[in-house]
Amino acid sequence: MENRIAETLKILTETDKEACETVRVSENEPISNKKRLFIESYGCQMNFADSEIVASVMREAGFATTSDAENADLVFLNTCAIRDNAEQRVRTRLKQLNVYKKKRPGMLIGVLGCMAERLKAKFLEEEKMVDIVTGPDAYRDLPRLVEEAETGQKGVNVFLSREETYADISPVRLNSNGITALISIMRGCDNMCSFCVVPYTRGRERSRDPESILKEAQDLFDNGYKEVTLLGQNVDSYKYANPNDKNEIVSFAKLLEKVALISPELRVRFSTSHPKDITDEVLYTIKKYDNICKYIHLPAQSGNTRVLEIMNRTYTREWYLERIDSIRRILGEECGISHDMIAGFCTETEEEHQDSLSLLEYVRFDFGYMFSYSERPGTPAAKKFKDDIPADVKQRRLAEIIEVQQRISTERNKKLIGTVQKVLVEGTSKRSVDDFSGRSDQNKVVIFPRENFKKGDYVNVLITETTSATLRGRAVVEEEIAQLA
Ligand code: SAH
Ligand code: SF4
Ligand code: F3S
């Protein structure tokens, strides 16, 4: 059994190589006489977007980013606290950084993000090499904290704000392929799912001024970007009341439409949708605009109503499946759908686990992010329930979930052989310089021979081969598409 679990997890990490990234490192900017800042980001896309805000704040303070941690003057780890293993990775990385710091005693180390917010000043006690601890709403204070740290005074700012959205800060695009960019449209989360640390690390939910979002998207488009992803923990609860006329409210559907109207050449994606909030209005808006991608990430977390209830997800299995049916009804079979699923939540029985598997079989998701439950200190679940599912049972259930999802992903992708997908070229494939890599409307990674295309082109690709994670094919011209039809 253990071998099978290890094998399943290995397949997942290998096939995922093209599809996802878990750590992002800053790139080299021209240095001249500036101080060097290395930023490494963990966790979700919101953290990656925040690091771009941080780089912008620090640029104003005279720092340029570098990809070389060993020779940096300042190292920031933008951390994630979602599961214990996310935190352990940061602890291990800090030990490595301490080796560099010992060689270059002037180096400063700052811990930012969700783990900083969770542990606060305790971080300074537990990890002696750390000079600065800053939570997600306090990044404007970083220059001051760094200045003080340069004089030997360690500093903490973990103040959580009800208003901060960094709306006026122009992010420095780190790791940018120059084609796709992330835009935060809201911060925080009010949902209080019982397993989740995010409401404690990112504070209350607040939506960003739509004008600043539209300006950012327009600027990106004017600078050659072809795709924006609108980010929030629960984008469907985006809501902005005009301060001059409280009756004028911009909903997520309206915002999506406004961004889509910037240009038909600008693709629009969004993440994450919450099953309790995603409305038919949003689905019809997606349908109305060709440039809004037909892809929805709709975390399920469990397929069993009792478990969903103690998770405080505020929907039932039936509600979730109704939302899926609506997506299929309004956007059709070909709309891409992915999920998040947690295996082995407190008190979950074998039958309840089977309900998660049967949900996967019913929906036939294209892709999934699957985790075993990790108790987070201070969350409602940690206070109310015992983390009572043994580790080996959690791992076995997780492996079963992954196995079912992998089979379905492979089957769903196979069905695309012989179809033509419109692919936005993001860059050279990681495996071969002769191939380009991009994404289809449904967010599938597509690899094809580069010929004379360039980054940022939309290319019609005839799919000829697939795995569970990627599609392969070759570019086709209009006449060939007509023949295929
Ligand atoms: N806002 C998103 C999720 C953000 S966290 C939503 O509501 O769906 C990303 C995913 O991490 C979650 O969807 C969940 O599947 C997983 N996760 C969160 N807390 C977890 C925990 N304590 N243990 C295991 N997985 C967890
Ligand atoms: Fe966490 Fe739930 Fe908020 Fe998602 S919606 S961030 S899972 S509390
Ligand atoms: Fe992690 Fe914080 Fe995102 S806990 S998943 S980095 S919101």
TrEMBL record:
Pfam families for the chain: Radical_SAM (PF04055), TRAM (PF01938), UPF0004 (PF00919)
Ranges for the Radical SAM core domain?
A: 175-411
Its name, as the record gives it, is: tRNA-2-methylthio-N(6)-dimethylallyladenosine synthase
Function in brief: Catalyzes the methylthiolation of N6-(dimethylallyl)adenosine (i(6)A), leading to the formation of 2-methylthio-N6-(dimethylallyl)adenosine (ms(2)i(6)A) at position 37 in tRNAs that read codons beginning with uridine.
Q: What is its main location?
A: cytoplasm
Q: Which SMART domains match?
A: Elp3
One MF term from GO for this chain? tRNA-2-methylthio-N(6)-dimethylallyladenosine(37) synthase activity
Organism annotation:
Dyadobacter koreensis
Q: Which gene encodes it?
A: miaB
Question: What HAMAP family does the annotation carry?
Answer: tRNA_metthiotr_MiaB
Segments forming domain TRAM: 414-477
Name the residues that bind [4Fe-4S] cluster 1: 44, 80, 114
Cellular component terms, GO, for this chain's entry?
A: cytosol
Q: Which reaction is catalysed here?
A: N(6)-dimethylallyladenosine(37) in tRNA + (sulfur carrier)-SH + AH2 + 2 S-adenosyl-L-methionine = 2-methylsulfanyl-N(6)-dimethylallyladenosine(37) in tRNA + (sulfur carrier)-H + 5'-deoxyadenosine + L-methionine + A + S-adenosyl-L-homocysteine + 2 H(+)
Residues that span the membrane, as ranges: none
